[in-house]
């Protein structure tokens, strides 16, 4: 075929780009739907990262980042109820209430100065303990000084008085591991260091010591 013939031959038609406005609208609707779902899910995700105990924690224990693990929860007001990673100082905190293994650490269950202000003392107390006296509960420690019993031949005691208010129970001591008389019990409590001497004096004088559940505010 000559060049003139090729020039006269019909050229193939170019393919036109197909565009349907309905297709574009459909794409926009799909994109808007996906964005809406993402926005709804993001708004509904109110989870907060808080700290939980890796193992059981007792009052008086010093805890740091190695004793705790982060966990995500969806609880209203969790950032005010539970310990957050940002709430844990570099030097750690001291436990004020028992925390079970895996349990979320309540903000009220730790303190920064307790270890410097309080110490644990084991007390032999007269009589049985109230059922509400358990690890982590607040108690008042009462003491009755022993008076002269020469005339009667039997021990007599003066009127009891509170020597420690709102002490924290660490644990109830097993009788097999603590020498106590029949009808008495032993309990380990956290007391302010400023009152330790008074408590030890009562113990040394064989005063009658009792542990009573602390009164709740407003009761």
Tell me what you see in this structure.
The protein has 2 domains: 48-111, Type Iii Antifreeze Protein Isoform Hplc 12 (Alpha-Beta Complex), CATH 3.90.1210.10; 116-213, no CATH class. The chain contains 5 helices and 12 strands. A hairpin with an 8-residue loop joins strand 8 and strand 9. With 219 residues, the chain is of the alpha+beta class. The protein is rod-shaped, with a radius of gyration of 36 Å. It has helices spanning 3-8, 21-44, 78-81, 114-117, 196-204, and strands at 48-53, 62-63, 68-73, 93-95, 110-111, 118-126, 138-144, 146-147, 156-157, 161-172, 184-192, 208-213. It has a 5-stranded antiparallel β-sheet with strand order 6-11-10-7-12. Strands 2-4-5 form a 3-stranded antiparallel β-sheet, with no helix packed on it. The model has no long low-confidence stretch (mean pLDDT 78).
């Amino acid at each position: 075929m000559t060049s003139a013939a090729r020039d006269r031959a019909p050229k193939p038609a170019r393919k036109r780009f197909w565009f349907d406005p309905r297709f574009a609208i459909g794409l926009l609707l799909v994109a808007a739907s996906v964005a809406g779902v993402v926005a709804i899910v993001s708004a509904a995700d109110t989870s907060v990262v808080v700290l939980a105990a890796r193992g059981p924690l007792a009052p008086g224990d010093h805890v740091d980042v190695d004793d705790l693990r982060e966990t995500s929860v969806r609880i209203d007001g969790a950032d005010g109820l539970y310990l957050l990673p940002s709430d844990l100082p570099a030097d750690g905190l001291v436990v004020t209430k028992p925390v079970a293994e895996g349990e979320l650490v309540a903000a009220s269950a730790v303190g920064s100065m307790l270890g410097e202000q309080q110490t644990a003392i084991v007390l032999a107390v007269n009589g049985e303990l109230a059922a509400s006296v358990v690890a982590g509960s607040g108690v008042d420690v009462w003491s009755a000084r022993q008076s002269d019993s020469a005339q009667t031949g039997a021990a007599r005691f003066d009127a009891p008085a509170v020597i420690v208010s709102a002490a924290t129970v660490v644990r109830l001591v097993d009788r097999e591991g603590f020498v106590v008389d029949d009808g008495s019990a032993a309990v380990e409590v956290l007391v302010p260091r400023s009152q330790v001497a008074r408590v030890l004096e009562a113990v040394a004088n064989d005063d009658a010591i009792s542990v009573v559940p602390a009164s709740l505010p407003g009761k």
